[in-house]
TrEMBL record:
Keyword Phosphoprotein in record: no
Keywords: Disulfide bond, Signal
PANTHER family linked: ALPHA-TECTORIN-RELATED, PROTEIN PRY2-RELATED
InterPro entries on file: Alpha-tectorin, Ser_inhib-like_sf, TIL_dom, TILa_dom
Region forming the signal peptide: 1-20
Residue stretches making up the TIL domain: 33-86
SUPFAM superfamilies the record matches: Serine protease inhibitors (SSF57567)
Entry protein name: TIL domain-containing protein
Record-annotated TILa domain positions: 87-143
Amino acid sequence: MGFLLLHFALLLLFICPCQAQGEEVTDEPAMNCQPHSHFEECASPCQGTCPFPEPNEYCITVCVEGCVCDQGYVMSAGVCIPKENCGCSYRGRYYKPGQRFWEGPGCGRLCKCDTTLGMVVCKKASCSPKEKCSVVEGIRACRPLAHVHPRETLTA
């Protein structure tokens, strides 16, 4: 991170005075930007992304030429998408908008990626009497008691 900030600070020493005098810094024409983005001569190198829609506060004074997502859009896997289409990051995992999942031993909490709030929201819950909490291929869920899976791990 320190190297990048030093690199951008050095670029600013040369780019900003030229831009302030109205000179174009590059000899190439403006970039062709992808859908839902546009070219800016002085943009933050830390654009909003799905997990972090707000720009990084340490990048505000740094500026670079490039394509940036239009208002209301953020970068996700190299493409600008509407903010409301972003999922949620929770405990090192990514969940799609509206995706529900069980958390905790014994499936004690049912969680949901709430795009309105921009975060995962969990509430107390439990499996029905005809279900048992188990983990299959890394996914914790309430499954029917009759359900048998070779990779199943029961949780208390």
